[in-house]
Amino acid sequence: MRGRVSPLMLLLGILVLASVSATHAKSSPYQKKTENPCAQRCLQSCQQEPDDLKQKACESRCTKLEYDPRCVYDPRGHTGTTNQRSPPGERTRGRQPGDYDDDRRQPRREEGGRWGPAGPREREREEDWRQPREDWRQFQNLQNHRIVQIEAKPNTLVLPKHADADNILVIQQGQATVTVANGNNRKSFNLDEGHALRIPSGFISYILNRHDNQNLRVAKISMPVNTPGQFEDFFPASSRDQSSYLQGFSRNTLEAAFNAEFNEIRRVLLEENAGGEQEERGQRRWSTRSSENNEGVIVKVSKEHVEELTKHAKSVSKKGSEEEGDITNPINLREGEPDLSNNFGKLFEVKPDKKNPQLQDLDMMLTCVEIKEGALMLPHFNSKAMVIVVVNKGTGNLELVAVRKEQQQRGRREEEEDEDEEEEGSNREVRRYTARLKEGDVFIMPAAHPVAINASSELHLLGFGINAENNHRIFLAGDKDNVIDQIEKQAKDLAFPGSGEQVEKLIKNQKESHFVSARPQSQSQSPSSPEKESPEKEDQEEENQGGKGPLLSILKAFN
C-alpha cells in the first residue's frame, strides 16, 4: 500500500520547518557580533537560561571573552586552560605533570612569574594534577590536591568567597589580615611570613594586604571535598567578570529569603554597576581598582577600610593560639627551635598530630626549609610522605634519584603484555634527574626517592606533605640520622665493594649533619683539584645520567 501525503499535511510540515528556522535564528543573535568561537558558543548557551537576570549575567560574562586570546569555552562561564576550573576573575594556570611541550617528550617547566598576560603583581597561579595521564597513575595521591600562588599589591583585598575544598594557606611574604567566617562566627588574624591558616570547606574567607608598601605573596593548597581534583569558588558579590551565586536563585525565592522587593534586592546585591550613583559609592567603598587587574577578585582599598578590617584581628603569638582544638587557629611554622639546624641551614616542620588538629584530619605536614648560599641539604628521602614544594626565595639546584626499568622505554601496551616476564627479571637503571630552581617554582618529592638540594643563593622552600602521618625523614649521609651508618658492619661487608670498616670510615669523614657546605672538603684542601666543570659540561653529563631539566620532568621516570 503506497502512502499519500495530503496537501494539508505538507502545509503543516512547511510551517513547522519555518517555525524551527525562525526559533534558531532568534536564539543565535550574537553569531555575527563576534568572531571568537569561544565567546560565540558562550553567548549561544546563554539562551538556555530561563531567567532574564541569569541570561543578562551570562551575556555580560561572554562579551568579555571576545578579545581574550586565552579563551576556552566552559558552559559554566569559566575561562582558562582546558584542564582548570577557576573563577573567571582569577588569573590561573593549571598544568598536569604529564604535559609535554613537544614531540621529543621534553617536559614543560613550571616557572614562577611567567604565566600569561596577567598583571605582575595581582594574580593567582594554579598547579593542577587532576586526571593524570596513564604514565602518572602511581601518583594518584596528587589528583586531589591543587597549589595556588597569590600575589597582591599593598592595600588590596581578595574579595570574599567560599569553595567546596579544604584549604591551607601560608604567608610567603608580607603582612596579611585573613578573615574566616561561617554561619555564626567570624575570626580575623594578622598573619606574617611563616604563618599558616586552614580555611575549611564552605567557610567564607577574604585576604587583606594591610602593608602600605610591600606586596603580599601567599601559597595555598586546596583539597576538594565533592569531586576529586575539582572544586569551585563561590562569590556572594558580583564584579566585572563574575556573578554572585545569589543570581542563581529565582525571583520568588530571593524575595521570600530577604523579605524585600526584587528590585531592591537586585539593586543592592546583584547588579554590577547600576549607574553613576552606585559607581560613585563603589569608588568610595573600595577606592580605585588596580589598573593591572580588572578581574574584580582583588580590589584596592582605602586606608580607612584597612583600619576597619584590621581593628578586631588577632595576632599570632609565638606560643600559638590559646583555643586548643580549633581547626581555624593559625600555625606559626617557625615556632620554637628548628627541627634541624646548623650553620648551613635549618628546617622547621609541623606534623599532623593532636597538637595540630588543623593538619591531623588532612594527614598533612608543613615544612619550611632555609638553606644558606653555597650549602647543600644532604641526600635524604621521606619514608611515606609525598611533598609538594614551592620555592619561596632564592635559586638552587635539585637532584633526585629514581630507578627505571629498561622496558619502560617501550610502549605501555607492549610493557603490559610482558608484565610477567618483567617481574621475573629486567634490568633496573639508577638515573639522576636535576632541576634548576628559582622563586615561584613548584616541584614534587615522591616518597622514598632520594633527593639533594644545593643553594646557589640563599634558598627558602615551603613544603606541603601529603600522607604525612608517621613519616620519617631519612638521611643517607652525615654524622647524625644516617641510615647507612645503621647498617651492621657484616651487612656492609656483603653489600658494598669496600669492606664494612672502610664504609664506616668513609661515613665518619662528614662531621656535619643535615646541611653541609656544597663544596667538597677534598676540593677546598687540595690545590691540585680539578676546576669545576662548566655548566655546559655539567648539562651534558646530566643528560647522560638520565635527565636534565625541572623536577616535574622527573615524574616521567616512575612508570
From TrEMBL:
<keyword id="KW-0732">Signal</keyword>
<feature type="region of interest" description="Disordered">
    <location>
        <begin position="405"/>
        <end position="430"/>
    </location>
</feature>
<feature type="compositionally biased region" description="Basic and acidic residues">
    <location>
        <begin position="88"/>
        <end position="113"/>
    </location>
</feature>
<feature type="compositionally biased region" description="Basic and acidic residues">
    <location>
        <begin position="120"/>
        <end position="131"/>
    </location>
</feature>
<feature type="compositionally biased region" description="Acidic residues">
    <location>
        <begin position="415"/>
        <end position="424"/>
    </location>
</feature>
<dbReference type="InterPro" id="IPR011051">
    <property type="entry name" value="RmlC_Cupin_sf"/>
</dbReference>
<protein>
    <submittedName>
        <fullName>Allergen Ara h 1, clone P41B</fullName>
    </submittedName>
</protein>
<dbReference type="Pfam" id="PF00190">
    <property type="entry name" value="Cupin_1"/>
</dbReference>
<feature type="compositionally biased region" description="Low complexity">
    <location>
        <begin position="520"/>
        <end position="529"/>
    </location>
</feature>
<dbReference type="InterPro" id="IPR006045">
    <property type="entry name" value="Cupin_1"/>
</dbReference>
<dbReference type="InterPro" id="IPR050253">
    <property type="entry name" value="Seed_Storage-Functional"/>
</dbReference>
<feature type="region of interest" description="Disordered">
    <location>
        <begin position="72"/>
        <end position="131"/>
    </location>
</feature>
<feature type="region of interest" description="Disordered">
    <location>
        <begin position="310"/>
        <end position="338"/>
    </location>
</feature>
<comment type="similarity">
    <text>Belongs to the 7S seed storage protein family.</text>
</comment>
<feature type="signal peptide">
    <location>
        <begin position="1"/>
        <end position="25"/>
    </location>
</feature>
<feature type="compositionally biased region" description="Basic and acidic residues">
    <location>
        <begin position="405"/>
        <end position="414"/>
    </location>
</feature>
<dbReference type="InterPro" id="IPR014710">
    <property type="entry name" value="RmlC-like_jellyroll"/>
</dbReference>
<feature type="domain" description="Cupin type-1">
    <location>
        <begin position="331"/>
        <end position="504"/>
    </location>
</feature>
<feature type="region of interest" description="Disordered">
    <location>
        <begin position="510"/>
        <end position="559"/>
    </location>
</feature>
<feature type="domain" description="Cupin type-1">
    <location>
        <begin position="127"/>
        <end position="266"/>
    </location>
</feature>
